[in-house]
Amino acid sequence: MKHKHQKNIQIQPNVTIPVISKRGKIIIATGIGLVIVGFIVLTKTNPQGDNWASSISPFILIGGYITIAIGIIS
Fold it and tell me: If you placed Cys at 31, which of 12, 22, 25, 68 could pair as Cys (CB 3.0 to 4.6 Å)?
């Protein structure tokens, strides 16, 4: 028998939202720092692109972006 005041109760499953760990946030912050340093070094390049800054800045930038990706994954 159903009562007039009986409510339909639905149980929702527990859904966990993935969050970035403290270690991951530190890695991401390090990667952002590397990207900033890479762009600062990039401003030191000359138009011909044959000085030290032109050779190093791409590697710093790519390393920074890879570090950010690792921080997101971990």
Answer: 68
